[in-house]
Design goal:
Blueprint lengths: L3 H5 L2 E2 L23 E6 L11 E3 L5 E8 L4 E6 L4 E7 L2 E5 L6 E5 L4 E4 L5 E5 L5 E8 L8 E2 L1 H9 L2 E3 L5 E3 L18 H4 L7 H8 E2 L1 H7 L5 E5 L4 E2 L4 E7 L14 E7 L2 E7 L4 E7 L4 E4 L5 E5 L6 E7 L11
Parallel strand pairs: 2-3, 16-17
Antiparallel strand pairs: 1-22, 2-4, 4-11, 5-10, 5-12, 6-9, 6-11, 7-8, 7-10, 9-15, 13-14, 16-18, 18-24, 19-22, 19-24, 20-21, 20-23
Amino acid sequence: MMTPPEMEARIVRYGDLRPCRTAFIDAHTPGSDQKENFTIIGGGVSEAADQHVHITIPHGFNIGAAGQPPKCRNSLHSHRTAEVFFVLSGRWRFFWGRWGDAGEVVLEPGDIFNIPTGIFRGFENIGEDYGMIMAILGGDDAGGGVIWAPQVIEDARDHGLVLSEEGKLYDTKKGQSLPDGVGLMPVLSDEDLKAFPEPTTREVIPGYVARYLDLVAMADRKPVLVIGENGILRDKPGFEVGLLTRASSTKDMHRHDRPSVLMPVKGHWRVVWDGTDLYPAGEATLAPGDTMSVPEDLDHTAYPAMTGEAALYHIVGTGDPAGLTWTG
């Protein structure tokens, strides 16, 4: 049985998130130097030694977030495993390709994007206020880090940041230098770059983007599987993502044989565990931006705690290898 204090330790409140402003190689590059990176569950892909990790329990996937003021962008990069974003707040433009001009899509709050693995991608806040996007990354080790487009590494070097072959950042303007025997991260060659596809907007959006309002309509009677082998976005990235709404929520308890994660996007949600809805062992209330890790084999349920719009993303690992998701 999990006590309320034990469960509270598995909740990361939006207001308690601890940002890292030097997480990646473009942290000093104009246009990218105001972004904040958050590692909520798992080690993430940060290249900074001072990145705070809120929950270290392995889940089979990582949970993170990116917060950026208007006109701030995240530079072009690629991952070896899945990278899924849903918009918590703001208006965001995602773009992809070697130079970021192969395709793009604009996402609003609640929209979700299962970005194809193996392509260069970036994103920027095109709204008028500070915005936040929540991220799900495949695997416990998030695939061994980030692969940067060559121009990103070159621009960063001009502003004092270099990346070692071990994936660690060094700030030359602070007098830091690579240890003896450690080289720079190799820049991808022209031959290497041929392995990165350049899909068009028309090719990507149908199979990789789901709009929040469409998902809400589909979740009018039961939760909708958004990402999964039989999901709206068909994929096996190592986890499944579902959307639960007021209309599809239930007070019936259920459990998973793996840790799962609850992430409200709209409204406040009451989570109860063990016992019954009327007599639970414990309960907690989640708000948008909060993240809750539910232990495996724990009976629990979640339903709206207040009137009004309510929607919650639910993530559970599947154990599938997080391989390439772009099929052309």
